[in-house]
């Protein structure tokens, strides 16, 4: 999966996680300072603490231990290597079979294998994916798994709070918070419904609603970022910049902002953070659309995690 994700990044023209450093550039600064909270550093640190709490939660992204795509028909699963879907070693050698028929998935279990669905004993039957809202979550020992839909694909996502990625997490380095990267942008709303083509690490492209464009100035140069509507009630920016080559995650970062007010939006890049793919090969992250690859070093927010 890691190799597939890397090939996807290269095919989309994105930088791989480690490349030669870019030519030296003057350290950017906004064209004019804007008002910032009295204690920007304390607020940023508090925000990042909450972000780490979500990331390291028992069901957070660090708990991922598997992602298995289903073929049409039967998909045998368990820890033995002869299964179609090889689960972690804590699973029974041969646990059962997921059967895909078009957009539906059902599960049958081997005799003697017991698991629960939403805390209640489950002996088999049809399962709901995340395309239908909250997916049916199955439990087998410490593992939790459920069906996800990505484009035309259906897969089994497996989580375990005992995952090494969670147990061995050692924090994320960040740039020091600075008012220089808390930028006020002019928001140009879309006059008609507009879709943005957003690629992902699977090599697929999703058309997402783009409510407008944020226009801002750094170092005397104008830049533009287009957010998407992901149903969160905020603006979601998927962006890349020149630090991706040597200091931040090679596939770009995420940033959420409040909705525009009086035609303005505040882009606080101190809160730019790494996507789940920076920590695990079992995530299906969106990548920056071509128009959201900034040709400037955004030296704010989270830096690269480990060797990613």
Automatic annotation (TrEMBL):
It holds the Pfam family DUF1684. Keywords: Signal. InterPro entries: DUF1684. Residues 1-20 form the signal peptide. It comes from the Bacteria. PANTHER family: DUF1684 DOMAIN-CONTAINING PROTEIN (PTHR41913). This is DUF1684 domain-containing protein. The lineage of its organism: Bacteria, Pseudomonadati, Myxococcota, Myxococcia, Myxococcales.
